[in-house]
């Protein structure tokens, strides 16, 4: 049995209290949310925090709320809540697509969106989703609140722009009425991390051509969205030839490494194939949304 090194423990009562505790106890202190990434790392002694600040009582971070042209999601929202929200599925089908293939119900019942993004595992599905949706992170610390576009949030594998005395509090998703989105993942078995996955968002013009688009890839060494995809797709009608061009661009941009989940060529092939599939699905959904809006 693996047992973590000893640590002290505090249970924060609100955001201000959590930040005060982080500030008081210094950089060897870690926040614990669902604990599904941090605790396994502690058991393996890959992480040895001296103190944990438990944020599970911070109900103020547990909400999904539409606010004008933005969907606000608190950092403590569990995977299950995102999966089961009809509003999330309607506005951002990519989130439900991704949540359906994240781990298993046990992990989804505890794991949080904030923990997923802060863990910054290269195979984390919600990081790609947030990149593609151009989400904005709301971070609070001793100096107050700041907003950070997702493109600047991740600093590399397991590294984010959240300072040791800061808390990720919310994620803001801009709503575009004529957009839709999709996510697809290949995993070795149900509930496993991605061999490769792809996410796409597409906005259609009144004439049915693509007004804007973004594609992101998971677990192939690429942070942020694939460069050049929006420029390739803008102004052109959706279709198989176009999706194939985008797939080739994504495969060329991917930087996979060989590991127990598969060789480089296989992952590059998946980047190509999954890009085509998510663009196809996002375009079909966007066309449906457009038809419904009249
Ligand atoms: C068996 C298993 C399979 C999994 N499969 C997948 C998968 O297929 N796809 C996938 O995407 N994920 C997968 N996960 C990870 C899962 O999504 C976790 O829930 C997630 O990585 C971490 O969320 P958490 O709330 O448990 O974070 P925690 O483990 O509590 O924290 C993770 C890190 O984030 C920090 N942190 C947490 N919340 C905040 C905050 N609000 N502000 C600042 N820092 C914070 C912590 O200090 C810690 O460093 C899997 C996990 C397990 C155990």
Keyword list:
single chain; 294 residues; alpha+beta; Uridine Diphospho-n-acetylenolpyruvylglucosamine Reductase, domain 2; Uridine Diphospho-n-acetylenolpyruvylglucosamine Reductase, domain 3; Enolase-like, domain 1; 3 domains; 5-stranded antiparallel β-sheet; 3-stranded parallel β-sheet; 13 strands; binds flavin-adenine dinucleotide
Note the beta-strand portion: 25-35%
User: Structural class, from helix and strand content?
Assistant: alpha+beta
H/I helix tally = 12
Overall residue-averaged pLDDT value: 96
Assigned CATH architecture of the largest domain: 2-Layer Sandwich
Instruction: Please give the radius of gyration in angstroms.
Output: 19 Å
Q: Ligands in the structure? A: flavin-adenine dinucleotide
Largest sheet: 5 strands, antiparallel
Inertia-based shape: globular
Assembly form of the protein: single chain
Biggest sheet: strands side by side, in what order? 4-5-10-6-7
Q: How many distinct domains?
A: 3
> Low-confidence spans: pLDDT under 50, at least 5 residues?
none
Per CATH, what is the topology of the largest domain?
Uridine Diphospho-n-acetylenolpyruvylglucosamine Reductase, domain 3
Organism: Arthrobacter wenxiniae
GO molecular function: FAD binding; oxidoreductase activity
InterPro entries: CO_DH_flav_C, CO_DH_flav_C_dom_sf, Diverse_Substr_Oxidored, FAD-bd_PCMH, FAD-bd_PCMH-like_sf, FAD-bd_PCMH_sub1, FAD-bd_PCMH_sub2, Mopterin_DH_FAD-bd
Domain FAD-binding PCMH-type: 2-178
